[in-house]
Each structure stands twice: as C-alpha cells, then as structure tokens.
Design a protein that fits this description.
Its main location: membrane. Keywords: Membrane, Transmembrane, Transmembrane helix. This protein has 199 residues and is mainly α. The protein has one domain. Helix content is 79%, strand content 0%. Helix 2 runs antiparallel to helix 9. The two termini are 22 Å apart. The relative contact order is 0.18.
Length: 199
C-alpha cells in the first residue's frame, strides 16, 4: 500500500512527502476498502464468514507492510545491484521457505497437478509472478518509492476487471466507486510527482 511506502520512504530514504501525497494515499485506502468487501463496512451483523474475511484483511495489511519494506530495500540498494538479483534471491528463499511454511500452517501433503489445465494455471502463476517481480524491481530503481507503490495500486483495478471478464464476478455499486477512487488517487500521485515544479 502506498501509504506505508510513503511513510517508510520518508523515514528511511529521506524522500519528500507532501500533504498532497498523504491525501491521495488516504483516499486510495478508502477506495481499496470499498473494492475489497463493502458489506463488511455496512453490514449490521457480523457473521462467522465476515470474521474470516476480517482475519484475511488483517493478514493482507501485514503483507502490505512487508511489501512496503521490500520497496524501500530495493530503492535503498539502487542501481548498484542488478534488478534480476532481487528476483533471483526471492526465488531461492521461496523454494526454501515455502515448504516450511506449508508444513507449519498445516499442509502435510505434496500436491502435483493432474491435468494439463492445472499445469497451465501453476505455470501461469509462476510466469506472471516472475514478470511482476522483474518490473517492480526495475521500476523502483528508476523512480521514487512512493510513486512506484502508488502505481502498483492499479493491480487492484486490473484484478477487478479480470474478475468481471474471466470469472463473471459482477461488482457492486460500492466496488465500482472504490475502483474509480483508486484510479483517481493513483493519477493524482503520479501527477504530483511528475509535474516539473514538484520534482
């Protein structure tokens, strides 16, 4: 989330954070909340399913903190370290730690894909995940951490669109408003950071 990256970039990198950045960061959080699960915000009764979703939201916030930390580390290393090195070490740690994490969290069996479609899905996850890490690592070397994090928020909108196209997930009105807010706040941050008088 850009709000965490903005804070960390100010503390650890000394990047200038303006009031406008904070405004768009908070605005984007509001949009994310609307897209994620609006009924959690507006429901009168909290069901067991909602509690599970709230737990998932908490885990996602922790993931956002970790991701913001990654952005800061990559930016701190700068261009002195080739961006593919970041991707390589992420893969190595994933190979080592993923089985351990699966065992700790209750996964005791190794599952192999049984059909071509399953292989296609797993290979697709790996391929596009690799591309994402490559572009994130390189992009963060070339721009400010806060700007890079803001632009990555568009992944929420793309997921939103892909859900409609490929999964027949029809969004609610609140989710539509949230997507518009995310796009608006992201464009606002990009404009603020790229306007010559503000760089």
């Amino acid at each position: 989330m850009p709000i965490f990256t903005l804070i960390f970039s100010r503390i650890f990198l000394g990047e200038k954070v303006e009031v406008v950045d904070g405004f768009f960061g908070v605005l984007c959080l509001c949009g994310i909340a609307l897209v994620a699960k609006p009924h959690l915000l507006f429901a009168h009764e909290v069901t067991h399913e909602m509690k599970k979703r709230l737990f998932g939201t908490g885990a996602a916030i922790l993931a956002a903190l970790a991701q913001a930390s990654i952005y800061i580390v990559i930016k701190k290393m700068g261009v002195s370290v080739h961006y593919m090195m970041n991707v390589m070490y992420l893969g190595i740690l994933g190979i080592v730690l993923a089985p351990i994490g699966g065992f700790v969290f209750g996964e005791r069996r190794w599952h192999m894909p049984n059909a071509a479609a399953e292989w296609l899905v797993f290979l697709g996850v790996g391929f596009f995940g690799l591309l994402a890490q490559v572009f994130i690592s390189r992009g963060l070397q070339l721009c400010r951490a806060g700007l890079g994090a803001a632009v990555t928020n568009l992944q929420i909108v793309f997921s939103f669109i892909f859900g409609i196209v490929f999964l027949d997930e029809i969004p609610s009105g609140a989710s539509m408003i949230g997507a518009i807010i995310i796009v608006t706040s992201t464009l606002g941050v990009v404009w603020n950071k790229t306007t010559p008088s503000r760089v």
